[in-house]
Amino acid sequence: MEFQHISILLSECLDSLNIRPDGVYVDATLGGAGHSLHIAQRLTEGGRLISIDRDDMALANAEKRLAEVRDRVTLVKSDFRNIDTAVASCGVEQVDGILFDLGVSSPQLDIAERGFSYMHDAKLDMRMDQQQPLSAYEVVNEWDRNEIRRILWEYGEERYAPQIAAAIQRAREQKPIETTLELADIIREAMPPAARREKQHPAKRSFQAIRIAVNDELKAVQEAMERSIDLLAPGGRLAVITFHSLEDRIVKNAFRSAAQGCTCPKDFPVCVCGKQAKVKLVARKPLLPSMEEIARNPRARSAKLRVCEKMPRK
């Protein structure tokens, strides 16, 4: 199956990055290569794009999708939390712009055998990097019941986390839980009838939570934000698309912290902390997709784009 993905907030991302034809840019979440293609098309021979992903399928697809601009693109297999070392491996110290499109990509959801979706039957997997040892199977069948309850509550904001964790423990005591639809049925049956009738699929929040745990996504986002800000050249921009409140909160707080200057009490006559703002916020509120984009691509509905710009050192 071809690895395709509809790029969300595409024009907003391109505009926010202020792309210079001879600049150096990073697409930290290559995915279906849509954003990478459009960034690279704006570069001349003096420009360069470094595209990062830990998914071998995404990297293989990019070889074909980016064929026309391949001379301007360097593909790197890496977890985006290690963006600094990934960029350094390309002989680059500073960049003019970085883009993150966080969360699971459409192909990962749509390709049943990847085990991300509660709509297709497949072995429990959910690994973005299929070389890593931890998969959803180990989380569901081997993790302590209280730890499963914790991730369902913290990562999925699932109000029935205790009931679902208990149901998972009962089921796995009889036999291992092996497939996505098997897990989805256990989750559904653990919820009260009213919750099963909600518009949202009963397993959506739990699958999100397990996926985040398998891929250590939230900690990775925190580390990536700090390292990305340090990578930017003065005037360079960091643009981040998020899809749920947990990611967005991390990005918002990282931007806000980096944009804060002196923290001395207001009655101090001079600054003694020495803290300088690293970035300025391009906009205080996130950019949202238009109703037209949501109509074309319902997966864009929850997207938010936040942008900051690196300040020159004083």
Automatic annotation (TrEMBL):
**Residues involved in S-adenosyl-L-methionine binding:** 33-35, 53, 80, 101, 108
Instruction: Provide the primary localization.
Output: cytoplasm
What are the subcellular locations of this protein? Cytoplasm
Q: GO annotations under biological process?
A: methylation
Reactions listed under catalytic activity = cytidine(1402) in 16S rRNA + S-adenosyl-L-methionine = N(4)-methylcytidine(1402) in 16S rRNA + S-adenosyl-L-homocysteine + H(+)
- InterPro entries, alphabetically? RsmH
Cite the Pfam families for this sequence.
Methyltransf_5 (PF01795)
Annotated coiled-coil positions are 52-79
EC number(s) reported in the record: 2.1.1.199
Keywords assigned by UniProt?
A: Coiled coil, Cytoplasm, Methyltransferase, rRNA processing, S-adenosyl-L-methionine, Transferase
Molecular function (GO) terms listed?
A: methyltransferase activity
Q: Which family does it belong to?
A: Belongs to the methyltransferase superfamily. RsmH family.
Protein's job: Specifically methylates the N4 position of cytidine in position 1402 (C1402) of 16S rRNA.
Q: What is this protein called?
A: Ribosomal RNA small subunit methyltransferase H
The record's gene field reads rsmH
